[in-house]
Amino acid sequence: MHDIRDIRENPQAFDRGLARRGLPPLSESLISKDDVRRSHVAAHQQAQENRNALSREIGAAKKAGDEARAGELMREVAELKGLIEACKTLEEMAVRELDEALASIPNLPLEDVPEGKDEAGNVLRHAHGTPKTFPFKPRQHFEVGQSLGLMDFEAAAKISGSRFVVLKGGLARLERALAQFMLDVHTRSFGYLEVSPPALVRDHAMYGTGQLPKFADDLYRTTDGFWLIPTAEVSLTNLVRESILSEEELPIRFTAWTQCFRSEAGAAGRDMRGMIRQHQFSKVELVSITAPEESRAEHERMLSAAEEVLKRLELPYRVMTLCAGDMGFSSTKTYDIEVWLPGQEAYREISSVSVCGDFQARRMNARYRPAGGKGTRFVHTLNGSGLAVGRTMVAILENFQNEDGTVTVPASLVPYMGGEDRIGPVTWDRS
């Protein structure tokens, strides 16, 4: 959420930021809406001041025994009551119109964000690891999973339709092992506090992190007004909504493993095969709440936390700095981590790590009180995948597949797999 006062003070800078996002200038329109709001606020205040002045005159007239004058003044006050209500209604309408306009505008990119309209403008930050050379043609993850009898898209389609999967045996355990491994990395090595948050939230929570109103079509809503979270970012970031924290409490770092739900309304025809783009998937999320001066350093720290998971899993990856035109709605700077998938012969996104400045904090009214200072300031919020569990499984199946169809378990995951170092075809002990 943007501050209209900042827009009034720096309209050219605001419009330049929008232009980098591929949007037209909006400062003039927003300032005009704010002028209307201000005029109604002034009219409302003037009407109330007039009523207060008349009320004092009524008291003076009664004290002087001038009942005729008091009656006349009381009739004027009665007439003002209707005017005050009308002014209040117009003020509320003007506030709502301005807020709705501001709520639909994305965050502005930081100065060091690369220029560009889409993913073609993204810039390589660094790469880690060397893609493995196979003595055979590597298969895609769904070919590996289906040949093992552990990944069933047909059964899922009978139950739920397309873009769902049923995992069995070793792959079901691998999903659980990955999540536990990621949580341990983030809590033990990076000091994140593990949280088990709600997966159903109300409108204000979705609005607070920027999913509403713009992305309603990409979300699932229940018949009684709940929304299924598209990411635990929603639940975790809203833990500090409508709060005033002390500076000593910052930074706050949360992590959670949750199911996530997305309609993928804008992805028709894309990644229809396999687990890359699902309606339901699990993810380990990272969220940080910081003071403004610390958010840039926290962004780098969060990136290193997500990278550490891939390093320990021995998966080759690269980090891209997203250009201004390819960033998410609430982000002011984003790094995407892309893991190498030999079956696809391509790098694919496995994590997006973003700093949002005070954009979300304004929507949630999340503030802190500076040590030794007066008043309050909005916190800065950050979020990142640490990592998408399903996509990490995809990467393991493709990078650790063997010619005989089995999959080697990365060494760091073996303890989480009960000592099993290889995933083979499904077996079911019916004893």
Salient structural properties:
single chain, 431 residues, alpha+beta, Helix Hairpins, BirA Bifunctional Protein, domain 2, 2 domains, eight-stranded mixed beta sheet, three-stranded antiparallel beta sheet, 12 helices, 19% strand
* Radius of gyration, whole Å: 28 Å
The CATH homologous superfamily name of the largest domain equals Bira Bifunctional Protein, Domain 2
- The helix fraction, in percent, is 40-55%
Arithmetic mean of pLDDT: 94
CATH structural class of the largest domain: Alpha Beta
Largest sheet: 8 strands, mixed
| Outline type | elongated
CATH architecture assignment of the largest domain = 2-Layer Sandwich
Task: Say what the CATH topology of the largest domain is.
Answer: BirA Bifunctional Protein, domain 2
Provide a brief overview of the structure:
This protein is of the alpha+beta class. It is 40% helix and 19% strand. The chain has 2 domains: 4-103, Orthogonal Bundle (Helix Hairpins), CATH 1.10.287; 119-423, BirA Bifunctional Protein, domain 2 (2-Layer Sandwich), CATH 3.30.930.10.
